[in-house]
Write a structure and sequence with these properties.
Blueprint: H1 2-23, H2 26-42, H3 46-61
Helix pairs in contact: 1-2, 2-3
Length: 67
């Protein structure tokens, strides 16, 4: 049950990161993606952590409006 709630929380933070990133707020997006990555690490979910790391690296490089 706790793992399920942690996974749901991880996905909620990832969704918030995407929302903030598309809204142009990189710092809030990086904050939420870092929390999501921490939860993925605690859940030992390597696949989710890899996806979140890739997205974090893209957020650091340029804003969503640049695409």
């Amino acid at each position: 049950m706790i793992r399920c709630l942690a996974r749901e929380d991880m996905m909620a933070h990832a969704a918030e990161a995407v929302s903030f990133h598309h809204g142009g707020n990189r710092y809030a997006a990086l904050f939420h993606i870092r929390i999501a990555m921490g939860l993925a690490s605690r859940l030992k979910d390597a696949a989710a952590r890899k996806v979140l790391m890739t997205y974090q690296n893209r957020m650091r490089r340029k804003s969503a409006c640049a695409d």
